[in-house]
C-alpha cells in the first residue's frame, strides 16, 4: 500500500469509526441478536459481555460525545439545523449484515471478489453521504468553531489509530505503520 493510500484509508476509517459506535448501538438495540456480538465474528465482541448492554453503552457514549461537541462548538440556533443533519448522517442506521460464511464459500473467487466490491461501493456511498453532511455543517461554522472541530477530530483520529495499532499488535503485524507491507517469501 502506498503512503497516500494508507493515509486516506486511515482518515476514512477514523471518520467512519467515529460514528460506528452509534450505528452499532442502534442496530443492536433495534434488533437483538443481529447487532455486534452475534453471528460470525462474534468472538471479537466477547470482551464486551452482553451485546445489548455493550450497544447501549456505546449509544450513551456517542450521545455524550455529541453533546460535548455541541457545547464546545457553542452551536447557535441558526446552526442547529445543519448540526442535526450532520448528526443524522453520522448515525445512518443499522450496520449491514455480514455475508453468510457458508454461502460465501460456495462462490467462486471472482464472485466473492465481486461481492466484496459491491460492499465497498455501498460503504463508499455511505461515506459520501457523511462527507456531504460534514461539508454542509462545516460551512456554517465560524473559523473559531472550525478550529475546535478540526482539533477534536484530529484527537479522535489519533486515538483511533492508537487503538488500531494496539489491536494489530495483538493480532498480527502492524501494516499501516512504518511503510509497506513486508514482502512475502518467494516460492521455489
UniProtKB/TrEMBL annotation:
The record's keywords, sorted A to Z, are: Signal
Which intervals of the chain are annotated as region Disordered? 27-51, 156-188
UniProt signal peptide: 1-25
Could you give one GO CC term from the UniProt record?
periplasmic space
Entries under InterPro entries matching the protein: LTXXQ (IPR012899)
* Protein name as annotated: LTXXQ motif family protein
Which lineage?
Bacteria, Pseudomonadati, Pseudomonadota, Betaproteobacteria, Burkholderiales
